[in-house]
From TrEMBL:
InterPro entries: FAD-bd_oxidored_4_C, FAD-bd_PCMH, FAD-bd_PCMH-like_sf, FAD-bd_PCMH_sub2, FAD-linked_Oxase-like_C, FAD-linked_OxidoTrans_Type4, Oxid_FAD_bind_N, Vanillyl_alc_oxidase_C-sub2
Alphabetical list of SUPFAM superfamilies matching this protein: FAD-binding/transporter-associated domain-like (SSF56176), FAD-linked oxidases, C-terminal domain (SSF55103)
Organismal lineage: Bacteria, Bacillati, Bacillota, Clostridia, Eubacteriales
Listed cofactors: FAD
Keywords from the named record: FAD, Flavoprotein, Oxidoreductase
Gene Ontology MF terms in the entry: FAD binding; oxidoreductase activity
Similarity remark: Belongs to the FAD-binding oxidoreductase/transferase type 4 family.
Domain FAD-binding PCMH-type: 42-220, 513-694
Name of the molecule in the record: FAD/FMN-dependent dehydrogenase
Length: 910
């Protein structure tokens, strides 16, 4: 940004003062000095610092800065290690420290609502008396803010079991660069449209300003066992990590400290760590009281098999905290050795830990540097720490070379340049190592959809080599050409490309027709190269594409514009790799779910989803529609199960994001964008997925009552017990109410869950079925048993509501007098419900009007979409504030609108 003239600057500052008040605009040099530093990095001094106190003030401030194109950086506590809140030019700091209210603690709905300036520790402290916690626990949790945690997608030591920040944020209130306020999900698990909440996690304040967050909360475990295993060499310790995870044991934490860190700890704190050890593993197992012994025994056995020289189990809480103190304070002890230490942050697949630790050791020898390592070993996230004298120019230069080489080596091992610290300014050069120009350009276009004037935290995340480029003009034929000519040219080019199977038979094409639209042809590519060629030619000739898996969900939502060709992905159907030690698998998008799952079952593993659609969907189709099913309560949704994917985007470019790493915060999270994008942004070709071990035991219990009060009482009683169910489903038709519960895991753990549920006594409620099923087939069977597939004139409305609103919402749905009958089914714990109306005498317009009226009168939060119904395209929709950003994303990322034209993302919003 050019130097602001004094009078011009004063005019802008005066406008800001009218919004936030005189005292909340800092501009004196002495006040601004604090904001030029961020831990070990420094930037320029900002022009001013503004302290908004609520969403309205943030919106008004951004409107002013947007009008005058003044760059702005949102800031929390400034604890980031990558420099993402530092000024690189003249700018305004939007300091969110005064937005520090905890707005709601809602235990029954499992969330806490906070403003961005609340610290992580404040959230933990307010939840602890209720017996709950917020899972992310970064080392800075005492001072770092929730807004900052989300901006960085912060991790911590509990991530191996409970996930990183993005796995634990339900929804957000966001202010865009022009001051527009949008709500993404709020406290609701399901929403229509692109996953804005997922995109904001790890975006480092470059896409929008977070003003509220709804955080998922987790029940504190009844019992915790903590043990330390000591090793004479790093390789044995690293192998132990891979084997613990590979055996299906998911610890609450699994950390590693190397010899240099142990040495520094003992010199400073004398905690009793064996100073001769090359590595120490800190392992924590948690769960229900009295259920942990078998897991602890298995872990002890694995440690011994891998040559642990000593194993110590904490016998008291004081002992446990003493062990954890060593892990938390390890880095701070390095200052006794040298004036400065700098911490790297890379992540690799867990099975690559032995290799990467050996490589880091050799890098230290190569550059004559002392490098200690502490690791979140359970998720492959390493923090190699260089201990050096920053006043020694040669040592400082060698340290920078070493960091660069660590990033290169992590990438070579299938890892990433940052697992949890972010890109900021520190790792911008690494982005060019990790991503292709096409991938970075795609991210830059995504950024411009949110922030077209580029005022939000400029110079971060995307390297200058990309952000200064003009957007490429797409190849296209002259617009004057007739459709028939365009078609001939397209087919001629297809023949030259020698693309596999092109179907033009009318009878065959009838299977691909949709809402009266028929394609010219269906193409079945066999390779990603063929998919790319098809999309490149479609972009060139403005041919509209409908991606197709098995067609199991294409009827959901609307296709308001015609498509020209179908790209049938069933030819790309290979399992590329099943890596059970790393708990990951990579497949082509066209493989059918049932075929893939059967292969996993043979090895004792599974993909932890159970999509409810009929037929045999493909993995690509399931991912594109985020069709997770009922197991999300324990295993999360596909948004978090998908670790990496490849897609062919406009112009026929192939992009890749993620891989076999559990943690990855490099660039914008394109996985979150493509999961649930319904084929509107590109064609998914390859997916890497997180696997789960088959449980030792899984039990389904089905209850039935014809008494509404008994149904409601049992629902709430189960939710209050919070026994960490695997699924919690309901089906309601007429006056019959069904509840289907699933418990899964270790034998003793499942038995304990059943014991707790047996404590609930509800009259007029009958247990009608109980089945053991470690393959989770009974979950889908529950719905198949009661849902009639072929009702006439069927209309399906999907609702996402809070758990506490479910029973009242069902009553409202039952009161709607439309058609010959209706039923409600869905996942109670996530609040995702489907209401189906059927019969010949339904007015779609009246039905939608009734649903809107019910929602307005009964729900504080609720999102409703029409998924199936006659003449859906003709129904006017009530647009949410987020719709415009969805349109901008589509326009920027698919500028010729060739993918799934006129496709609603999921159902039609009502």
């Amino acid at each position: 940004m050019l130097q602001l003239e004094k009078a011009y600057l004063e005019m802008i500052l005066n406008k800001l003062r009218t919004v936030v008040g005189e005292k909340d605009v800092l501009y004196k040099q002495v006040d601004l000095a604090t904001y030029r530093d961020s831990v070990h990095l420094s930037g320029l001094q900002p022009t001013a610092v503004v302290f908004p106190k609520d969403t309205g003030e943030v919106s008004e401030v951004l409107k002013i800065l947007h009008q005058y194109q003044v760059p702005v950086i949102a800031r929390g506590a400034g604890t980031n290690l990558c420099g993402d809140t530092l000024s690189l030019d003249l700018c305004i700091i939007l300091e969110l420290a005064k937005m520090d209210r905890i707005l709601e603690v809602n235990i029954i709905d499992r969330y806490v609502e906070v403003e961005p300036g609340v610290t992580n520790m404040e959230v933990q402290n307010i939840l602890k008396p209720h017996g709950y916690f917020f899972a992310p626990d970064p080392a800075s949790m005492g001072v770092s803010t929730i807004g900052g945690n989300i901006g960085e997608n912060a991790g911590g030591m509990r991530c191996v079991k409970y996930g990183v920040t993005t796995d634990n944020v339900i929804g957000l209130e966001i202010v865009l660069s022009d001051g527009q306020v949008i709500l993404s999900n709020g406290p609701l698990d399901g929403d229509f449209g692109y996953n804005l909440t997922g995109l904001m996690n790890g975006s480092e304040g470059t896409l929008g300003v977070i003003t509220k967050a709804w955080l998922r909360i987790v029940k504190l475990p009844d019992e915790v066992k903590t043990l330390v295993a000591v090793y004479a060499n790093l390789e044995d310790a690293a192998k132990t990590v891979s084997q613990i995870i590979g055996k299906g044991i998911i610890p609450g934490a699994l950390e590693m400290i190397d010899h240099l860190a142990i040495e520094a700890l003992e010199e400073n704190m004398n905690l009793g760590y064996p100073i001769e050890a090359e590595a120490v593993l800190l392992i924590e197992i948690d769960g229900f009281s009295g259920t942990l012994e078998s897991q602890v025994e298995r872990v002890l056995s694995i440690c011994k098999e891998n040559n642990a020289t000593e194993i110590r189990v904490a016998k008291t809480e004081e002992e446990r905290q003493q062990l954890w103190l060593g892990r938390r304070e390890a880095l701070n002890c390095f200052v006794s050795k040298m004036p400065t230490y700098a911490q790297e942050d890379v992540a690799v697949p867990r099975t690559k830990l032995p290799e990467v630790l050996e490589i880091i050791k050799k890098i230290g020898e190569k550059y004559s540097l002392v490098i200690a390592s502490v690791c979140h070993a359970g998720d492959g996230n390493l923090h190699p720490t260089i201990i050096y004298d920053d006043k020694d120019e040669e040592q400082t230069k060698q340290a920078h070379f070493a960091f660069g080489e660590m990033m290169e080596q992590a990438i070579a091992l299938g890892g990433t340049i940052t697992g949890e610290h972010g890109v900021g300014i520190e790792k911008l050069k690494g982005m060019n190592l990790l991503f292709s120009e096409d991938e970075l350009s795609f991210m830059w276009q995504l950024k411009l959809a949110f922030d077209p004037k580029k005022i939000l935290n400029p110079g971060k995340v995307i390297p200058d080599t990309i952000s200064r480029m003009m957007l490429e003009d797409l190849e296209q034929v002259p617009e004057s050409k007739e459709v028939s000519t365009t078609r001939e040219l397209f087919f001629a080019d297809l023949e030259r490309e020698e693309i596999g199977e092109i179907l033009i038979n009318e009878k065959i094409l009838a299977a691909y027709s949709l809402e009266g639209n028929k394609s010219w042809c269906a193409i079945r590519p066999k390779t990603v190269t063929e998919v790319a060629a098809i999309v490149r030619l479609a972009t060139k000739y403005d041919i509209k594409i409908l991606p197709w898996g098995r067609g199991t969900k294409v009827s959901i939502g609307t296709h308001s514009k015609p498509f020209d060709i179908v790209v049938d992905m069933s030819g790309l159907n290979k399992i590329i790799e099943i890596d059970t030690e790393n708990l990951t698998a990579t497949v082509e998008a066209g493989i059918e779910f049932k075929d893939f799952q059967e292969e996993l079952y043979k090895k004792g593993y599974m993909l932890s989803i159970d999509p409810l659609e009929s037929g045999s969907p493909t993995i690509g189709g399931i991912v594109a529609t985020n069709s997770t099913g009922t197991l999300r309560l324990k295993y999360s949704s596909l948004k978090n199960i998908v670790l990496g994917l490849d897609a062919v985007i406009s112009g026929g470019k192939i992009i890749h994001y993620g891989g076999k790493m559990i943690k990855n915060v490099a660039g914008y999270d394109l996985r979150k964008l493509f999961v649930g994008s319904w084929g509107t942004l590109g064609i998914i070709t390859k997916i890497t997925l997180k696997l789960s071990p088959l449980p030792e035991k899984a039990v389904y219990r089905t209850f039935m009552t014809d008494d509404y009060s008994a149904f409601a009482d049992y629902l709430f009683a189960v939710q209050k017990k919070d026994v960490q169910l695997t699924s919690f489903d309901i089906f309601v038709e007429n006056s019959k109410y069904y509840i289907n519960l699933c418990m899964s895991g270790q034998h003793r753990s499942v038995d304990r869950q059943l014991e707790i549920l047996d404590e609930i006594e509800i009259n007029k409620l009958a247990l009608i079925d109980e089945v053991q099923d470690p393959y989770f087939i009974a979950g889908k069977s529950f719905f198949n048993k009661y849902i009639q597939p072929n009702q006439s004139n069927k209309i399906v409305i999907k609702s996402s509501i809070r758990f506490s609103d479910i029973t009242a919402w069902i009553k409202k749905i039952q009161s709607i007098n439309q058609g010959e009958g209706s039923y409600v089914f869905g996942n109670a714990a996530s609040g995702i419900l489907y209401a189906t109306f059927f019969g010949e005498n339904i007015s779609l317009t009246d039905l939608i009007s009734d649903v809107k009226a019910c929602s307005k009168n009964a729900l504080t939060f609720g999102v409703h979409t029409l998924e199936i119904g006659p003449e859906m395209s003709s129904i006017s929709k009530e647009e949410k504030s987020s719709v415009s950003i969805y349109l901008h994303l589509k326009e920027m990322l698919d500028p010729k609108a060739i993918f799934s034209p006129g496709r609603t993302i999921g159902g039609r919003s009502i």
